[in-house]
Every structure is written in structure tokens, then in C-alpha cells.
TrEMBL record:
PANTHER family: ENOLASE (DUF1399). It comes from Prunus persica (Peach). Residues 504-682 form the GRPD C-terminal domain. Residues 1-30, 630-653 are annotated as: Disordered. Residues 13-24 have a biased composition (Low complexity). This is GRPD C-terminal domain-containing protein. InterPro entries: GRDP-like (IPR009836), GRDP_C (IPR057518).
């Protein structure tokens, strides 16, 4: 294979949408800033791969997800039977079919056999030895990436199978509860270990951006550069550690064994020093790989979506601070005011320019500040310029941003002298997400007079919705706000009924829904009849889609379209409250007064639903927040643990995790996290927003009535202003734990880590005590609403 040489620097441009393919072009950076894309390996002239790596990787990601979700595939009897079928039936069939052709037959095996075959090929040396010992040749795999062609190949395989093995079922029909058969063939035990080892392989590549075409093109480019580095640094490093994007391409290449063997036949010996997927590596090996990459390509090794995914021996591993998973459907598209939320990962590396070596004293007062182009106006992350080295790239920030933030701005600022406060801007560098999406490897480098900055991103993909409820004015039965203005417009006809209102805002502060809670009935006017609270069974809750129609100032009418209702019903025995939802769900609530804790328990059922739903108290599954324990003395252990348990109980109070159980996923999948005390929720696109909102408000209403106190500040009947500029941007920027060690702001953490700090202080009405607000007489006094809520 010819030696690979980096091609000259070039800049590419492409359409801004993350699903669009790349096209070449040019771009310029105005002013005194310079920008360049990284040196690329010429795919046509220097190195050819006999496989469509992008399609192969995309197909493998989908396959691994299917395997991960198919619990039956991981049962011991099923796996052992699959290995037998693979050894005795499948491989001999494929071998015989390749006698007449040099290319693998275009047939597709059943999923259990395909899974064993896939795991087997990820150990190329072992797979080659197996094939040559049994068939005297290397058995290849057909490259079928189109779904229709896959269905045809599976059907064709079934025909050949039935003809050759009339007494063997095409599908794996072993009962998962049957006795485990002892592996008989010599290689069955080894294959069993390979399959067990790769069972959780999907978790390494589960982020939804991994399947985006733009990401995979960038990953393929980096994989080729990695092969070049392997070939050209034989004597410089004992072990090379692939980043996650490179590992994805490497495994996809390996899964087509004949193509892999042909493409890399001159590098077979060199690849032995590349660390495998499940190896535990030393920090020293990681650092050596990073240095070799920097020396070879003059760029940082790690990037957004290209972290070191292997387990470090003695190193620090971080659990991602955001949870995003592939969602097949978005049931909330039926609600027009709901806009999808898109999230991307950002990595920023910095190093000093060479000419700054002689200017150490001048740099001591300089800082590099990160801000967003849009949203989160108060975000100002700073690091001293003197902290960055000249010789290598250093990761400055690792964060997750909503696509609506548009980009990042970096300012070189000089702090004032001893008599002056603040700082002045010296240079400014800006990276826009759309420019980065057009760049090769989704990465750009820019520089100013002092530093070089490299920013990389992942393609934006849909993330969970974020919704919160804020107080709003009291309305009448028609949905009009209670006001002298409305009375005059109605020629002083009295407004009938009284409803508490909450406006639902999305992650960007846009109105999505208006929630109304009925508390009073009757015709009343200013100074007229005394309002009366309605009976419990008449205190219905309704959700209307859209935003208020304002007639003057902050006075208006609720939207007309009704999309959800909750009606109180007589609770069954042993339950304290029950609600019927328009979604077909039934909610039941219990409160044990004798319990030392909150004593709340919940039941949720829907007779027509295909899945079973449970409400788990607290932050569970991916939302679990683990607290560090610091107990140093044995005699203090018990007291400290008890105190910590009480603190954790208080933090968990109000949180509920909505988990759906299906036949394919018996362990459950958390589709929403809600806090009914704060009226805030995070939900996956496949979870119905109206159901989650009905749960929040129904539970809050019921608990307030049970405890005879205004638990969630429902008595606030005015829209409150933001306490602090920028707090509306909750979730727009989240720092990765590796970047957040010195950052204490809760606004840069997931909202549920410290919900009270993020939500309760933003002026949304979730506060510990009601502010002193004077309400107009026609709205009714506090005494009436307390009767309506707490009676």
C-alpha cells in the first residue's frame, strides 16, 4: 500500500442542515483573522477502501441498536443455540455458495446468526484462523445497505435454508427458559465469550448523532488519517488508542472481513498495536497517541464526538451530563406550538502561538472568555491565556449547546490594572455552527495575535423537550382574563366562573399551552355576588394549545383549541385521589399519613395502551444523580448517613420518572422526568407532552388538597418577571463534567441536578413564599382561592 501523504489545506462549505452532504467551495474570514481547515488525506489518490464505510457504519449502528433492544437474543440458551446454528449450518452454507463466485453471496442470515457472525469478525485474527482451518479460505460478507435489498436477501436466504436444511427452523426457536446446553464444538466457548463481551457494544455508540451522514463522513476521514499514523509510527509507540469515531469506523471495516483483509494486508502486523474496543488502557498510552497525532497532523486528537471511549486504568471517566437517545417517532408534532429542541456537542482546544513565547509577562493579565452568539447572555467562561502551552493543544471547554445558540464567541481580554476593574477586549474570534457543519471533519481552526483555537462539533440532533409552567392571570369559563377591561368590552356583563391559569413555556421561552384549573362558579361582578368554590368532582383541569390572544397589554383570552382534560373521580379503595385523563390514562394517588417520609404513591394505567406505564418516585435510570459520600470516622458514619439520607429524600421530593415497559423492552425505558412541585418536565419526543402536563398539575392539585397547603404556589395569580437576565435559557448550554470542575453555576448543569436553583428562582412563581401582590377585587381574594384549592 502506498504511503499516505496529507493534502494541502483547504476549506469546504456545505448546506447548513446537518443531514445534507458536504460540497466543496471556499470561505474567507474577514479582518485580521485567519481560518483554515485541517490537512486531509486524499481518498482517491492515496488510499482506497473497498467498502462504503459511511453506509456500513450507519447500518451497523442500527443493527447494534436492534440487538440491544432484543432481550431474547441475550438469553444463554438462545446464544448457545445461535452459535451452533452459525457453526454447523450458516458458515458451511455460505462457504459452499462462494465456491462458484469470488464475491460473498447476496443473502442475509437470521438476526441471531448475524449477531454471532458480527461478533466473530471483530476479532480478525481469530476469525481468519477459524475460516482457514474449517474452509481453507476467508469467508466474506455481502455489502447490503438498502432496506429493500436486505428484505430480499433475507427472503432468498430462507429459500436456500429450507431447501438445504428441511429439518432445521430458519428462526431460532429455543425457549429462553430451557436448560442451558453445554457447548460442544471446540470454538463454541470462545465464540460465547466474544458474544458476551460485545453485548453492550451499542452503548458505546448510542448517541443519535453517530448515524448522521455528516458525522460519518468526518469519522471516515479521521479513520484514514489514523491508519496513516499507525503505518508511519511503527517504532514510536507501543500502543495506539483509537478515539470513538475512529473506533466506530474500524469496527465497521472489520465486520466485512474479506474487504478488511484486502485493504490492510500490508498493515496487518502494524494493527496489532492498536488497542481493542474492550481493553483497559493506561493514561500514558492515551497521551502518547495524542502527541503522535498532533505531531503528524498539527491538530488535537480528540474532538466533539471523538472522545477516548475506552476504559482508563487509573484515569478519570465522566458520565455524560445530557441524555439523548434515538427516538423513532415524535408524537408531539401534532401540537403546532411545540418546536423540536436540537442539541450538539462542542469541543474547544487552544494553544499559544509560537511568537508568544517571549511575551509571558504581557500574557499574565490576559484571559480567554467564551460567550454564546445567541442565548444565555450572562454566560462568561474565562481561562487565563497563560494556562495554555505552546507545544501542544489543550482542551479548554467541552460543552453541549442547543443549535439555537448559533455559535461561540471567544474574546481575548486584558484585565485592568491595580486601580481599574473589569477588562477590555483585545481580539475576537467567532465560530458559527453552520460554518463548522460545512468544514471537513466538522472542525475549524482560527487564530488571532496570541492564540490558536480549534472548535469541533457534532451534527445537531433532536434532544428531549423541556417544558415549565409559569403563573398567569385568573380566567372565567370562556377563557378570558378577569379584568375591568374585559368587563367593559362585554358591556359589563359579569364574568362567569373562576379558573387558575398556568402558561407552559418551552426551552426557548415560547408559549406552548395554557393550563386552566377550575376553582369557582357563579356569576359575579365587581362588588357583586360572593364567589363560591366548586365541589371536588367539578374541579376539572384543561389544557389548551397555543398562546394567549392579548387585547390590551397583558390582558387577553386563552387559546380555543382544547387538547387535554383531567376530571376528578371517586378514588378506589385504599387510594386518596383519582383522575381520568382525556388521553385514556387513569391516575391514582395515595398519601400515607403514618409514613415517616412523604408517603406519596402513584398508580397510572391505560387499558388501551400497548405498553405498561409506571411512575417511579425520584430521579431514576438516566436521571439518577449520585452524591459523593465523605465519611472519615467510624463513629460518625451512622449519623452522617442518616443526615444524607434525609437530604437526598428532600432533593428527590417532587420528582417522578415516567417509565414505559414493552414486550421488546421489559426492563423499561424512561421517557420523561417531571417535578410536580415545580411544574417542570423533560420528555423524550415519543412521550406525549399533554399527558406529562396533566400528570404534573393533577398531582399538585391533589397533594395541595390532601395536605391543606399551597404546595406549589398555585395561589400566585400574576405573570412574574424574570429575576435574573439569562435564566430563561435553562438547558441552552450544559458543561461536560471535565470542564465544570471550577464552575459552580447551576445554570450550566442539567436542570434536574439542582432544580430549585434553576427553576425556582427564575421568577416563574416557584418560590418558597408568595410575593406581596395586590389582586383586583373582581379576581377574588386569597380566602376564596384557598377554599378552592385546599377545601
Amino acid at each position: 500500500m502506498p504511503k499516505l501523504q496529507p493534502s494541502p489545506c483547504r476549506t469546504q462549505s456545505s448546506p447548513s442542515h446537518h443531514n445534507m452532504s458536504l460540497s466543496s467551495g471556499g470561505s474567507e474570514i474577514p479582518g485580521n483573522m485567519s481560518a483554515r481547515s485541517f490537512s486531509e488525506i486524499s481518498e482517491v489518490e492515496n488510499f482506497k477502501v473497498g467498502l462504503d464505510l459511511v453506509s456500513a457504519a450507519r447500518r451497523n449502528i442500527g443493527f447494534l441498536r436492534t440487538v440491544a433492544e432484543s432481550q431474547w437474543l441475550h438469553q444463554q440458551p438462545t446464544v448457545i443455540e445461535a452459535i451452533r446454528r452459525y457453526n454447523e449450518l450458516w458458515m458451511p452454507l455460505v462457504s459452499d455458495l462462494t465456491v462458484e463466485s469470488t464475491t460473498p453471496p447476496a443473502i442475509h442470515p437470521p438476526i441471531d446468526i448475524e449477531w454471532v457472525w458480527f461478533c466473530h469478525t471483530l476479532n480478525p485474527v481469530y476469525y481468519r484462523q477459524y475460516c482457514e482451518s474449517k474452509f481453507s479460505k476467508l469467508i466474506g460478507k455481502a455489502t447490503i445497505f438498502d432496506e429493500e435489498n436486505e428484505e430480499y436477501a433475507l427472503m432468498r436466504c430462507r429459500e436456500l435454508w429450507v431447501r438445504r436444511y428441511p429439518n432445521e427452523p430458519f428462526e431460532n426457536e429455543v425457549d429462553s427458559d430451557s436448560d442451558v446446553r453445554v457447548p460442544e464444538a471446540a470454538n463454541e466457548e470462545e465464540l460465547l465469550e466474544e458474544v458476551k463481551k460485545n453485548r453492550f457494544l451499542h452503548s458505546k455508540f448510542s448517541e443519535p448523532y453517530r448515524a448522521e451522514i455528516v458525522y460519518l463522513i468526518a469519522a471516515k476521514q479521521r479513520y484514514k488519517r489514523f491508519l496513516f499514523m499507525v503505518q508511519s509510527t511503527i517504532d514510536l509507540c507501543s500502543s495506539l488508542v483509537p478515539a470513538s469515531d475512529i473506533m466506530l469506523m474500524w469496527l465497521s471495516h472489520q465486520s466485512y472481513p474479506t474487504v478488511y483483509a484486502e485493504d490492510l494486508k500490508e498493515m496487518e502486523g502494524d494493527l496489532g498495536k492498536v488497542v481493542s474496543m474492550w481493553a483497559t488502557v493506561k493514561e500514558k498510552e492515551v497521551e502518547e497517541t495524542k502527541k503522535l497525532w498532533e505531531r503528524t497532523f498539527d491538530q488535537p486528537y480528540e474532538k466533539a464526538g471523538g472522545e477516548i471511549a475506552l476504559e482508563l486504568d487509573g484515569g478519570v471517566s465522566f458520565k455524560p451530563t445530557v441524555y439523548w437517545e434515538v427516538s423513532d417517532t415524535d408524537v408531539n408534532t401534532k401540537y403546532k406550538p411545540m418546536h423540536p429542541r436540537f442539541l450538539l456537542e462542542v469541543c474547544v482546544f487552544v494553544r499559544l502561538r509560537d511568537k508568544m513565547k517571549e511575551m509571558q509577562e504581557d500574557m499574565k493579565r490576559n484571559v480567554l472568555r467564551l460567550r454564546m452568539v445567541r442565548c444565555h447572555r450572562e454566560l462568561k467562561l474565562e481561562k487565563p491565556v497563560s494556562d495554555f502551552p505552546h507545544s501542544s493543544w489543550r482542551k479548554a471547554w467541552h460543552l453541549y449547546c442547543e443549535f439555537g445558540t448559533k455559535g461561540v464567541i471567544f474574546e481575548i481580554r486584558k484585565r485592568g490594572g491595580s486601580c481599574f476593574k473589569g477588562s477590555s477586549v483585545q481580539e475576537t474570534v467567532t465560530f458559527h455552527w453552520n460554518d463548522l457543519l460545512r468544514a471537513p471533519s466538522l472542525t475549524l481552526e482560527k487564530e488571532d495575535q496570541q492564540v490558536k483555537i480549534v472548535a469541533s462539533i457534532t451534527p445537531p440532533v433532536q434532544a428531549p423537550y423541556l417544558l415549565k409552567c409559569v403563573p398567569d392571570r385568573v380566567t372565567d369559563d370562556s377563557g378570558a382574563m378577569i379584568s375591568d377591561l374585559i368587563l367593559r368590552m362585554n358591556q359589563y356583563r359579569p364574568q362567569e366562573g373562576r379558573w387558575l391559569s398556568r402558561t407552559v413555556l418551552d426551552h426557548a421561552g415560547r408559549d406552548c399551552f395554557v393550563i386552566r384549573i377550575r376553582v369557582g362558579a357563579g356569576f359575579w361582578r365587581r362588588g357583586g355576588e360572593t364567589p363560591s368554590a366548586v365541589k371536588w368532582e367539578d374541579r376539572i383541569i384543561e389544557i389548551r394549545e397555543g398562546s394567549w390572544s392579548y387585547v390590551a397589554g397583558s390582558i387577553g383570552r386563552a387559546p380555543v383549541k382544547l387538547v387535554g382534560t383531567a376530571i376528578p373521580k371517586e378514588p378506589p379503595e385504599q387510594w386518596k385521589a383519582a383522575w381520568n385523563f382525556s388521553t385514556g390514562d387513569e391516575l391514582m394517588i395515595q398519601w400515607e399519613l403514618s409514613s415517616s417520609k412523604s408517603g406519596l404513591s402513584f398508580g397510572l394505567k391505560n387499558q388501551a395502551a400497548e405498553s405498561t406505564v409506571k411512575l417511579l418516585k425520584g430521579r431514576k435510570m438516566q436521571y439518577q444523580v449520585k452524591k459523593k459520600k465523605s465519611v472519615t470516622k467510624d463513629e460518625e458514619c451512622q449519623n452522617e448517613e442518616e443526615g444524607e439520607e434525609e437530604e437526598e429524600d428532600e432533593e428527590e421530593e417532587g420528582f417522578l420518572t415516567l417509565v414505559r415497559y414493552t414486550e421488546d423492552n421489559p426492563n423499561g425505558r424512561a421517557t420523561a422526568l417531571l417535578n410536580w412541585k415545580l411544574l417542570v418536565a423533560e420528555l423524550m419526543p415519543e412521550e406525549d407532552a399533554v399527558l406529562v402536563l396533566l400528570l404534573c398539575i393533577s398531582i399538585l392539585r391533589s397533594v395541595s388538597e390532601m395536605k391543606k397547603e399551597d404546595v406549589g404556589c398555585l395561589l400566585i395569580r400574576r405573570r412574574l418577571k424574570e429575576v435574573k437576565l439569562g435564566t430563561r435559557d435553562w438547558g441552552s448550554v450544559v458543561l461536560h463534567p471535565s470542564s465544570s470542575s471550577s464552575i459552580s453555576s447551576p445554570y450550566l448543569q442539567p436542570w434536574y441536578w439542582n432544580a430549585k436553583a434553576i427553576i425556582a428562582s427564575d421568577g416563574a412563581g416557584h418560590i418558597t413564599r408568595q410575593p406581596s401582590i395586590s389582586y383586583s377585587p373582581e379576581e377574588g381574594g386569597d380566602k376564596f382561592y384557598k377554599r378552592g384549592i385546599l377545601a
